[in-house]
Amino acid sequence: MKDSALLELSGVDVHYGDFQALYGLDLAVAEGETLAVIGANGAGKTTLLKTISGLMKPTRGAVRFAGRDVSRTATHKRVRGGIALTPEGRRIFGSMTVEENLKVGAFGRRPGPWTLQAVYDAFPLLAEKRTRRGGFLSGGEQQATAIGRALMSNPRLLLLDEVSLGLAPVVIADIYAALPAITAKGTTVLVVEQDLTQALAVADRVQCLLEGRTVLEASAASVSRAEVAAAYFGTG
Ligand code: ATP
User: Fold this and answer.
1) Residue 47 CA, ligand 1 centroid: distance in Å
2) Is 43 helix (H, G, I), strand (E, B) or coil?
3) Tens digits of residue pLDDT in 30-44
4) If DSSP codes are grouped into helix, strand and coil, which group holds residue 97?
């Protein structure tokens, strides 16, 4: 890790009723770092993001953000503290233009480097479509708008859920091409992915989940795709 952790989960269990989705999960993301959490369907990735953003509360263990225990802190307070979630499925406003959608993200924003221009610099495809309504955007443009909207709040930690879901490979590459510009502004990123290739290409570290448990944690540069694939499918 580059620095002391901005986000740290220790020994986190999460249940849906009687069903346990996460088992004693430890995870840390340093300020400025990009962590990719990977795993197959049902591995617990979305549950992890819900636990970080406060939509689910751990039944055991702790979530610390910026040095504070936020395990019991409400979602809106975590947002104010600098945690932004771009949910799976995007959810932008179809009747509003790209630019209006981005401005919604600036409501109550923290001070920081993200402006409309900075978002357009990171995502040139949005600059060209700034007056287009959300409902007329392609899936990739909607995804970029959703990420841009989250950035407009100047988050310290950007959580990205399944960026590549349902998008064509060329569009996925466009979205991921923006990540260096995002981290260059000091924004810490935790990305949840099923796509191993993308995860390994963009992340400093990868953590692989299988049925709610960590089965691999490694620096992206030091691990082979085969090792990650074996952990992912539980054949390692
Ligand atoms: P996906 O890629 O399909 O989103 P995931 O890795 O994000 O998968 P989760 O959605 O976190 O996985 O689900 C982890 C486990 O928890 C799965 O077994 C799932 O069936 C279960 N689960 C998720 N949401 C609920 C819920 N609301 N009630 C009961 N079980 C749930």
Assistant:
1) 6
2) coil
3) 999 999 999 988 999
4) strand
